[in-house]
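Note to self: keep these together.
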Amino acid sequence: MRWQRQRSLETITDPNLTGNYCPESLKKFGEIAEKCLADEGKNRPTMGEVLWHLEYVLQLHEAWKIAGVTESSISGNQAMEDLEERVQGKEQQPSNEGTSKYA
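Structure:
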């Protein structure tokens, strides 16, 4: 993803939030936003999928806050992987029931 390689997502994030958000949450938020911008409607996620991913990002962020992890204390990807595993243990796959893809 172009924005990830260029680290441009961090440049548009409110500077007052620096250190107050989980970097992995920001990355996943950017990924779902990028999927929503697909040129063809059939390639975009359903609203149910968007909701599921945003709830996942929120859970990941809340787990990060509870763990007291700060941006400067993360060593490598291990801390984020541990948090993701904890959050994934609580999540369920999105249901497409009652949702439809936009064309």
